[in-house]
Write a structure and sequence with these properties.
It is a single chain. By secondary structure, this protein is α+β, with helices and mostly antiparallel strands. The chain folds into 6 domains: 2-11 and 125-233, Alpha-Beta Plaits (2-Layer Sandwich); 32-120, PH-domain like (Roll); 251-377, Nucleoside diphosphate kinase-like domain (Alpha-Beta Plaits), CATH 3.30.70; 384-463, no CATH class; 466-596, Alpha-Beta Plaits (2-Layer Sandwich); 614-780, Nucleoside diphosphate kinase-like domain (Alpha-Beta Plaits, 2-Layer Sandwich). The protein is built from 34 helices and 28 strands. The chain has a 6-stranded antiparallel beta sheet with strand order 4-3-2-1-6-5. A hairpin with a 4-residue loop joins strand 15 and strand 16. Residues 1-35, 198-205, 207-213, 373-377 and 748-783 have low confidence and may be disordered.
Length: 783
């Protein structure tokens, strides 16, 4: 390629001072050691999945003959005698990389001596390279060019930016890369400048730039800028940056294997794919550990003898995943890949990827989807980091939970033991809508707290647009809460927290503090504190704007003209008595949600439980998951009952057993009742019932929905129940339990200690109350 010669010319014109400086290294105090040994030393870590231990080694590499040896740091003894090892490329020896040494994946965490640090790390820099939308079609050429400049691509991702501040980069997909090499910042920047100014590369520039005015790429101007910009595209932790451009529609998967990337073949492979007429929809570099590689290739286990070698190769270094547009599904792209054995490919189909770039059956350049049904499955797996408190061992256990939406199956991986905990199995009781961070899901009687996404794909697919916002129903509309909840569920928003509360004037003033200088401040505070309100945390795609659209314009008269179907148009009176409040932005939502549902010590404004002339009702998890909450509340209100208090909560198994202890050994459904109550979010209601329990129990109906439908078809369980366990609601059975159950689900106690499930010591009122204490403590924690 003509551009490659230009690249070499650009390199020759680069400043020589830095290289001259490195050439004088031999005069240093380390020159004798270098001449005698020429040995590179690294501190490495290796996770032993069998022993579930992290081992620390010194890795020594001898460039003269390509041999390696290893020293066990803990045991202070040699672990691997010096042996020639051709599969380790010196270019891969840099801090932060992962190398494969005799089937062990070693993470290079630091240099092992000053000589190695000076020799290999003195000038190594990392910089951001962004290929702009106009040049994406030449991405293969650019990868070749990068390789020719002795720069290493350590991270890469095709993404689409939407921020207004990056106007020039938002017209289409870009490819962001982390480049590493000697003086990487200046080398990459010099190349960009060279393309802009050199006559010899004008033709190449015309190739890369469509409008003739902008360069084809962006480069960091300094190491400080590089660090900041790399953090934007490739955050160090707790985030994944801009998502990749995967579509999962009419596409197939291709993985460029580690050996091909290490040999600098990435650009050539990308070019061959493009020249064959295929469009690359998405691109991302990644590393795969052994457990995931085994899982990925599981279909070949016991089928092809190369299975262990295939696993070793896939986890030996960085891979590049490509999504290829292939409307004919897999066969046409598989034709381009060729037979798995490159020797056969070279004989029968010499222009295929494996014929051109493969070495043997294991190092055959690329993996492609073999079966049509696997094209989405190879990508469509949701991963979560979860926690489960084991009450028997009193230990918090950490798992990876994998969910496969294609067939609704799940599997679990033990993070500590680094081994599979649950083999993949179909599990119908897990609803994909429940898979969001902060939720609790039940998998085979284990309540798993979803604490984070387990991989970038899941974060991009499920979390990229998920927002949380505050929905506040004002005093004039609290009686409409059932209707409101029905419309919320119809809008594909999820209620993750809810509480009926009565704000004091001071609390309302604090909530409206940002409007203190506005003329409507006093009237707004007065009205908000004039009666009970219902505060809810809503979650969903673009929840902030979705809820604002549901509410309509702030002035009810304006809402009636501009959005007659909105809540404020239908139920509002003016600009203050306007049905409800919604957060204006994500930042405002975070602040307002913290006001009602604090994440730290405290519970926020208390709920409105009275414990007088009332009974308890719990809407069960299955009914909430099925979107029946609003219908149940409407039915209760239409039957003439007043809802005095309302709060959502989660119950763990130990507390559910305690709560239902009176039924243990009495009803055969006891275990199922416990499982259901702790399977997800519940909603506790305090119902005004001056006739004590009987009248509200009449509305609930018999425990068996089938019996209810025959004898009392208009009861809650007849209308919304499914069976004796999933019968929509629990209600207080015994008159003496009404205060106790209201207190257990709507009361307040001391804040919990982290990961502690025991109840705090509080006075015992009488024996029946004692049975509810543990349950009471756990439920009040979430108040």
């Amino acid at each position: 390629m003509e551009l490659m010669g230009d690249a070499a010319m650009a390199r020759r014109e680069a400043p020589q001072s830095a290289r001259a400086q490195s050439g004088s290294f031999g005069k240093s105090s380390h020159s004798l050691a270098a001449a005698r040994e020429e040995r590179y030393a690294f501190l490495t870590e290796w996770y032993d999945p069998t022993a579930a231990l992290m081992w620390s080694f010194q890795l020594f590499y001898y460039p003269k003959d390509g041999s390696v040896e290893m020293f066990d740091v803990k045991k202070h003894q040699k672990f691997l005698k010096r042996v020639k090892y051709d599969d380790l490329d010196p270019k891969d020896l840099y801090i932060g990389n992962r190398v494969n040494v005799l089937s062990r994946q070693l993470n290079l965490i630091d240099y092992g001596d000053e000589y190695t640090a000076n020799k290999l790390g003195g000038k190594k820099e990392r910089t951001l390279a962004v290929i702009k939308p106009d040049a994406i079609i030449k991405i293969g050429d650019l990868f070749e060019l990068i390789h020719a400049f002795d720069l290493i691509v350590t991270k890469a991702k095709m993404t689409t930016l939407t921020r207004n501040s990056v106007h020039l980069l938002s017209s289409g997909p870009v490819v962001a890369m982390e480049l590493m090499g000697d003086d990487a910042v200046s080398v990459w920047k010099k190349f960009l400048e060279y393309v802009e100014s050199t006559d010899a590369l004008r033709e190449a520039r015309a190739q890369f730039v469509m409008d003739g005015t902008e360069s084809f790429g962006h480069g960091s101007v300094s190491l400080a800028a590089a660090a900041k910009e790399l953090q934007f595209f490739f955050p160090a932790k707790n985030d994944y940056g801009p998502p990749n451009t995967a579509t999962f529609t009419d596409s197939t998967c291709c993985i460029i294997k580690p050996h091909a990337i290490a040999e600098g073949l990435t650009g050539k492979i990308l070019n061959t794919i493009s020249e064959a007429g295929f469009e690359i929809l998405a691109l991302q570099m990644f590393n795969m550990d052994r457990a995931n590689a085994e899982e990925f290739f599981q279909v070949y286990k016991g089928v092809v003898p190369e299975y262990p070698g295939m696993v070793n190769e896939l986890c030996s270094g960085a891979c590049m995943a490509l999504e290829i547009l292939d409307t004919n599904q897999e066969q046409s792209f598989r034709d381009l890949c060729g037979p798995a054995d490159p020797e056969i490919s070279r004989l029968l189909r010499p222009n295929t990827l494996r014929a051109l770039f493969g070495k043997d059956k294991l190092k055959n350049a690329v993996h492609c989807t073999d079966l049509p049904e696997d094209r989405v499955l190879e990508e469509e797996r949701y991963a979560f980091l979860t926690e489960w408190f084991d009450p028997i061992a009193a230990v918090l256990r950490c798992f990876q939970l994998f969910y496969y939406p294609n067939d609704g199956s799940v599997e679990m991986f033990d993070m500590k033991k680094q081994q599979k905990f649950l083999k993949r199995i179909k599990y119908d009781d897990l609803d994909p809508k429940d898979l969001f961070i902060g939720n609790r899901v039940k998998v085979f009687s284990r309540q798993l707290n979803l604490v984070d996404y387990g991989d970038e794909y899941t974060a991009n697919k499920l979390g990229s647009k998920k927002e949380r916002t505050l929905a506040l129903i004002k005093p004039d509309a609290v009686t409409k809460i059932g209707e409101v909840l029905e419309k919320i569920y119809a809008s594909n928003l999820i209620v993750t927290k809810a509480k009926m509360t009565k704000l004091t004037w001071s609390q309302a003033a604090d909530f409206y503090a940002e409007h203190q200088s506005k003329p409507f401040f006093n009237n707004s505070v007065h009205f908000l504190s004039s009666g009970p309100v219902v505060a809810m945390e809503l979650m969903g795609d673009e929840a902030v704007s979705a809820w604002k659209k549901f509410l309509g314009p702030a002035e009810s008269s304006g809402a009636q003209r501009e959005a007659p179907q909105s809540a404020r148009a239908q139920f509002g009176t003016d600009g203050i008595r306007n049905f409800g409040h919604g957060s204006d932005s994500l930042a405002a939502a975070a602040r307002e949600l913290e006001f009602f549902f604090p994440s730290t010590i405290g519970y926020g404004p208390p709920n409105t439980a009275t414990y007088t002339d009332s009974t308890c009702c719990i809407i069960k998890p299955h009914a909430i998951a099925e979107g029946l909450t609003g219908k149940i509340l409407n039915t209760i209100s239409e039957a003439g009952f007043e809802i005095l208090a309302l709060q959502m909560f989660n119950m763990d198994r130990a507390n559910a057993e305690e709560f239902f202890e009176v039924y243990k050994g009495v009803v055969p459904e006891y275990n199922g009742m416990v499982n259901e109550l702790c399977s997800g979010a519940c909603m506790a209601l305090e119902i005004l019932d001056t006739d004590q329990e009987q009248s509200f129990r009449d509305l609930c109906g018999p425990a068996d929905p089938e019996v209810s439908r025959l004898l009392r078809p208009n009861t809650l369980r007849a209308l919304f129940g499914k069976d004796k366990v999933k019968n929509a609601v629990h209600c207080t059975d015994l008159p003496e339990d009404r205060v106790l159950e209201v207190g257990a689900t709507l009361g307040h106690v001391m804040p919990p200690q982290e990961h502690t499930y025991a109840a705090p010591l509080i006075p015992h009122l009488y024996n029946r109350l004692e049975q509810n204490l543990v349950c009471e403590a756990a439920l009040r924690r979430v108040s």
